[in-house]
Every structure is written in C-alpha cells, then in structure tokens.
Amino acid sequence: MTDQNKEPEGAPEEGAPQGDGTTGDEAWIQAEGPDVETSLNDADQAFLAGEGDLPAGPGPDGTPGAAGDAAEGGEHLEDLRRVTAEYANYRRRTERERDAIRDRATGDAARAILPVLDDLDRAEAHGDLAEGGPLTAIAQKLRGAVTKLGITPYGEQGELFDPHQHDAIFQRESPDVEKPTVSDVVERGYRIGDATLRVAKVVVDTPAGS
Q1: Is the pTM of the predicted complex or chain greater than 0.85?
Q2: In this predicted model, what pLDDT tens digit does every residue of 126-144 receive, in sequence order?
Q3: Which of 58, 155, 180, 183 could form a Cys-Cys staple with 205, CB 3.0–4.6 A?
C-alpha cells in the first residue's frame, strides 16, 4: 500500500539544516520566490495598512497620475474661462449692436417729426402755448412721446459754443463773454443715446477783439 502520509519528494524536512546553513523552511521559501508583500514599495504598503492614499499610477502622458489629473483639470479650467470670456464679449457686442440698430430706426422716424417740434418751440416763444391754450395739450403729448423714445433736446442760451454740437448761423462780438457763448437758439438740437440726430442752430457771442 502507498503511504498517504509520506512527504512529497523535494519538500524539505521542517527545521532540517541544509548544506549552506539554512533550514529546510528557508530553503523552500527561497526556491518559491519572495512573498508578495515583500515586493511592495513603502507607499503601497502604507495604503494597504490604511495609513495613506491610493498610490497614483502614471498618467496618459507618462506623468504621475495625480499630477496628470491636475494638469488636465487646469487645462479644462482655462478652456472654460476662455469660453466664458468669449461669450461675455459676444453678448456685450450683440447688445451694443442691437441698441445701435434700435436707435437708428428710432432716429429715422424722429427726424420726420423734428419740424413739428420746431413749430411747437416757435409757438411757445410767441405765447401760443399758454396754459389752457388749444395747442398746449397736444404739445405736451407729442413732447412726452418723443421723450419716451429716448430723444432728448439740447441747446440753451448761455452754454459754451461747441462746434461739434452747434451750428453757428450768426456770430457777434460781445464784451460780456470771455469765451464763445450761445446767445440765442434758432433751432434746438436733438440726440438719441450717444448719437446726434441734428445739431442745434444758434447765434454765438464771441469775446470782443477775438
């Protein structure tokens, strides 16, 4: 009969010394190879022991995983910032263009009624728009509608003459002024936003001897 308890051939006897001075157990371990845990580095062993983070493997570009992820995240953040800035600029540019188009359309319509506003100013100067007069209510409604459209008149007596905003139809010397000054307004000027619909036609007083 075969002895089932017989040790396999090649297995060293427990504790039996070998020719090189090692015991049978040590010789068998050396023959089998190093234990798995003995091949782990310090970071791996610390993670397995619950004392550290998961060791980072190499990233797609060969850099350590954590550094690679950080670099990739930084690139995505820069892309997001750039897209956000481009969208903000696009929105502001679109809003400016839309406002400019609206102002041009309103200005084109307003130029058609500027002569009517001039007539109202002349009527007012002659006293025809006195309180309770027949044209007073009409004048108020028309001027109110023009104001709601964003159209504002300018040109008043006493303001300094600006050749970009005033059309001097007449000039005269005056000892009462030190700089060219509007002394009379023939026709008011009108603006819509930053655009000038019509410059004001004025009489200008200039310093004597200028």
Answers
A1: no
A2: 887 877 777 788 888 889 9
A3: 183
